[in-house]
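Q: Convert this sequence to structure tokens.
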Amino acid sequence: MRLARRAYGLPQPIALGYSNGANIGWGLLTREPTELAGALLLRAMLPFDLRPLPDLHGIPVLLIAGNDDELIPVERAGLLAAMLGEAGADVTYEVLHTGHGLTTEDLSLATEWLAARR
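A:
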């Protein structure tokens, strides 16, 4: 990613992922925090402890969970939000009254959050 950004003069991207894609997004953020401008994570979870925590100071993260998610318990998403915050990320954590599927409310929250970063 770093080489492509330099070669083409691209800014740092914001990771966007849903479910396992969101897990990949926060994994990349925690392993290469200087490569991303933030992360928008839909239905992500914390499958393992991130410690030692990386320095994510000031990196914006939107994490949206479903209260009735049949695949990802909302508590696991909450643990991820807490750990990212403990690492210094500027975390916005939203819990919607929905399951694992995406809703128009997800889209609205994501759109507002992205617009605030321009």
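The beta strands are 14-18, 38-42, 60-66, 90-96.
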